[in-house]
Amino acid sequence: MLSASALDRTFAALADPTRRAILARLAEGEATVLELAGPFSLSQPAISKHLKVLERAGLISVGQDAQRRPRRIEAQKLAEAAAWIERYRTLWEGNFERLDALLDEMQAPAAGKRKTKD
Amino acid sequence: MSTIYAEADISLPNDTDVVVRRSFNAPRDLVWRAYTEPALVQRWMLGYPGWTMPVCEMDVRVGGKFRWRWRRDEDGVQFGFHGEFREVNAPARLANTEFFDPGDIGGDMGSGADITTDFAEHGGVTTLTIVISYKSKAEREAALSTGMTDGMEASYQGLDRLLTERLLGPATVRRY
Fold first, then answer.
1. Which of A30, A47, B143, B154 is a Cys-bridge partner for A70, taking CB atoms 3.0 to 4.6 Å apart?
2. Given an 8 Å threshold on Cβ–Cβ distance, is B11 in contact with A83?
3. Of the candidates A51, A86, A21, A77, the residue with the CA atom closest to the CA atom of residue B164
4. Strand residues in B1-124 grouped as ranges (E)
5. Distance of alpha carbon A92 from alpha carbon B5, whole angstroms
6. What is the full per-residue pLDDT of chain B (176 aa) written as tens digits?
């Protein structure tokens, strides 16, 4: 399931423009390696390599048809997964920004006794 | 040499733990105070906008209890956490248990979490490392994914939409 390294894999997989384009194609519907190789003018092994990276990152899966092995996008699930960790982080960061302000206040000299640099 | 976490950093090192790291531009005795004196805790540990922390009781000693409760101003909805301190080593380390109190928002009580907070100071900068250990992967996921209120869920949906658009948005589709 989801772990920090899984998220790292997801973002690494998304960093490549060809892989993003493959995902965009798969967002319109499942496609086989052969069907994907055409529009990208890449060799079948090169496409397979990209698909492997996407699959390991959980962004795509292989469909039921054992002969055609169509690839399907799983990006919605991953977008949600990335979103929940970000929401959780936002909650902590909101607290920590208030804590920053409080710590600044605790360290500031008492009002009226504030030192200036000159 | 130590890493500075200018923003909250979240990692999931294994199936049950969540690690939160954040650095503060303050000596650790001050960070410790802000973390353990209820009147100070009530000023920052507020969660999302629109919430206050009317109850913050903390008996910071080994075996001492704490009770926190939040209230949404808009409709008075409340929930909280409570637990017990297991290790108190000022200003370096605090360990406690933590149990969810669903209050008015409902949800599973769960079987609680063990939390260890380390305060490390380097050159006047204090880095907090908070390790939250849940009893199971499922409980960790519940804790991470449960939004606190429906109202907050609305803003999350905006974020989900944004992320989805960034992955699959019209700018990317059909470009190949």
1. A30
2. no
3. A77
4. 9-11, 17-24, 51-58, 65-72, 78-89, 93-101, 113-122
5. 13
6. 578 999 888 887 777 888 999 999 999 999 999 999 999 999 999 987 888 999 999 999 999 999 999 998 899 999 899 999 999 999 999 999 999 888 887 766 678 999 999 999 999 999 999 999 999 877 877 777 654 333 344 344 444 444 444 444 333 333 22
Q: What is the SS3 assignment for A5?
A: helix
Distance from CA of A111 to the nearest CA of B (A): 19
The two structure tokens encoding residue B116: 């260890």
Residue A7, both tokens: 């998220």
Distance, CA of B91 to CA of B119 (rounded, Å): 7
Number of CB atoms found within 10 A of residue B121's CB: 20
pTM across the whole model: 0.66
Measured at the alpha carbon of residue A41, what is the angle toward residues A38 and A47, in degrees to the nearest 5?
Answer: 80
Reported residue count of chain B is 176
d(CA A86, CA B156): 10
Q: pLDDT digits over A50-99, tens only?
A: 999 999 888 899 988 888 899 998 866 567 656 666 778 888 999 999 99
Q: Token pair of B75, please?
A: 């409709």
B13 vs A4, A14, A78: nearest CB: A4
Name the amino acid, one letter, at B29: D
Main-chain phi, psi angles of B26, to 5 degrees: -160, 150
